[in-house]
Amino acid sequence: MPDKDDVAEEQPGEVVAAALRVIAFVVSSLGMVSVFGAGRRLTGSVQGMLPTAPFLVWALFPFVLALFGLRRGAYSAPRGAGVILTSGFGLVMYADLVLASRLSSTAGLALIFIPLWQAIGCSVVLLLTIGRVREVWRRLTSGCS
């Protein structure tokens, strides 16, 4: 049976990881909504969004990747912080497109380049934290054998 001190030491880290996971989920979800808002703003109507559907799917990819990373396997606080950072970048960029008073003729290029940088950043975060999570998992399970 673990001592009360051992349990108390583990709980703050778990609480932080859980809080970061919730924040990352909210930021990624809001980012997905902002993609549709940006698509609506760039095309001028909901019907106008249909021809741009491949670009909208591409823009949603990093947010879906981030949500996948939040749900798969063991979870860590660094992964949550990285997902918040990369999804927050996309959220801010797309929200800027939605809220901008005027759009330039090249504003549509944002649907190509924002997801590119966001996907690269999110992939790096997920790949780096996979090794960290596996290392922690090995430490936890090595004491059980």
Q: Can you characterise this structure?
A:
This protein is mainly alpha-helical and 145 residues long. 79% of the residues lie in helices and 0% in strands. The protein has a single domain, classed as Four Helix Bundle (Hemerythrin (Met), subunit A) (Up-down Bundle), CATH 1.20.120. The protein has four helices and no strands. The chain starts with a helix and ends with a helix. The model has no long low-confidence stretch (mean pLDDT 80).
Q: How are the SSEs placed, and which strands pair?
A:
Elements lengths: L3 H40 L9 H19 L5 H23 L10 H33 L3
Question: What integer value in Å does the Rg equal?
Answer: 19 Å
CATH-assigned fold name: Four Helix Bundle (Hemerythrin (Met), subunit A)
In the CATH hierarchy, the architecture is Up-down Bundle
Domain module count: 1
Distance between the termini: 16 Å
Number of helices: 4
CATH class: Mainly Alpha
- What's the mean pLDDT score? 80
User: What percent of residues are in strands?
Assistant: under 5%
Strand count, sense and barrel status of the largest sheet are: none
Inertia-based shape:
elongated
Structural class: mainly alpha
Question: Got a strand count?
Answer: 0
Order of helices and strands: HHHH
Helix content: over 70%
Parts with pLDDT < 50 across at least 5 consecutive residues: none
What keywords describe this structure?
elongated, Four Helix Bundle (Hemerythrin (Met), subunit A), single chain, 145 residues, mainly alpha
What's the short story on this structure?
The chain is mainly α and 145 residues long.
